Amino acid sequence: MIDHKRYSNLLQFESLNAYDSLLHFSTTIDGGVSTGNYASFNLGLYSGDDVDNVIENRRQLASMLNLPSENLIFPYQTHGDGVCVIDREFLSKNKDEQAKLLHGVDAVITDQKNICIGVGTADCVPILIYDPVHKVLAAIHAGWRGTVAKLASKVVAIMKTTYNSDPAKLIAGIAPSISPDHFEVGNEVVDEFAKAGFLIDDIGYYDFNTTKFHVDLWFANELLLTQSGIPFESIEVAGMCTYAHGDQFFSARRQGIHSGRLITGGVVIG
Questions:
Q1: For position 145, which CATH number holds?
Q2: Distance between CA 138 and CA 264 in Å, rounded?
Q3: pLDDT digits over 81-116, tens only?
Q4: Is residue 152 included in any domain, yes or no?
Q5: Residue-range definition of the domain harbouring residue 247
Q6: Domain-located, residue 242
Q7: Beta carbons within 8 Å of 198's beta carbon, 6+ residues apart
Q8: pLDDT, tens digit, 9 for 90 and up, residues 150-180
Q9: Contact 189/146 with Cβ under 8 angstroms?
Q10: C-alpha 152: how far from its chain's center?
Q11: 120 vs 74: CA distance, rounded Å
C-alpha cells in the first residue's frame, strides 16, 4: 500500500488508486481526538470509546473525503455473512430504517456516487472489490468466521447478479490485518475451515515450538476471490500486520476488545 497522496494518515492500494472514479482508503491510528487504547483516530462506535470523540473522528474523515458526515455508511458488524446493498431505495429511508438494515451486516456494496461505504476492523481482514466498468464498490469485513462463511465469494456473486459485474474485470485489495505469524488459533477453528472445504495445509501451518496452528487469512481470502473469477494478478495484498505494527494500527488481539477500530472503504466519485 502507499500513503494517500494528500493525507498521510490514510493508506491506499496502488492498483485501485489508478481509477479516477474511485477514492478509497484504509485509516491508521493517526489524526483523531480519541485517547488511551483508542488513540487517536478511532472510528468505531461500538468498542467503548467516548461517542463524541468517535463522532469528531468521523467528521474529520468525512472532511478529508470532502463529504458530509451523514454520507458515511458503516454497518454494525457481527462476524456473519450479511450483505447490504446501498442503493437509491436504501438512501431514501430515514436514519433509523437505515440502521436496522445495517445491523448484522459484514459487507456493503454500492454504485451510488459520493457515498462512503466502509467496514471497521482491528485485526480482521478488510477487503475492497471494485468494478471499474460499472463503477461499483464493495467493502467486506472478513474475520475467520466471515472467511469460513466465504463472504468474499458471496459478495462477488451479488455484484454479478445485481450489477452485471464481470469477475474477470474486478480489482480487489486485502487491507492491513493480522498476519499468519500472529494469528494463532485452536483446533476448533481449524476444524471449521476444514468443514468449509479449505485445505488446511494451503491456508496455514503448525508451529511445533508453540504447538499452535496459524491461519493465513490473507491467502484464504485470495483463494475465495480467485475461485470467484477474479484474476490473481488483480488482487493486491497489503501484507501489513495490524498486530505487529502498533505504531500504525489498532489490534484487538494485542490491545483487547476495548481498542480502536480502523476503517477501510471508499467513495465512487465519477
A1: 3.60.140.10
A2: 10
A3: 999 999 999 999 999 999 999 999 999 999 999 999
A4: yes
A5: 2-179+230-268
A6: yes
A7: 148, 220, 223
A8: 999 999 999 999 999 999 999 999 999 999 9
A9: no
A10: 11
A11: 8
Alpha-carbon distance of 89 to 126, in angstroms, equals: 26
Predicted confidence (pLDDT) per residue in 75-88, tens digit: 999 999 999 999 99
Helix (H) or strand (E) holding 12: strand 10-12
Give residue for cell 481526538.
33
Cell numbers found for residue 93: 429511508
Each residue of 220-263: pLDDT tens digit? 999 999 999 999 999 999 999 999 999 999 999 999 999 999 99
Per-position b or e across 49-84, b if 16+ CB within 10 A of its CB:
beeebbeebbebbbebbebeeebbbbbebeebbbbb
- Residue 49 in grid coordinates: 470509546
Report the distance separating Cα 182 and Cα 123, nearest Å.
10
- Cis before 153? omega within 30: no
pLDDT at 170: 99
DSSP codes, 203-255: HEEEETTTTEEEE-HHHHHHHHHHHTT--GGGEEE---BTTT-TTT---HHHH
131 within some domain: yes
Question: What is the total count of domains within the chain?
Answer: 1
185 within domain boundaries? no
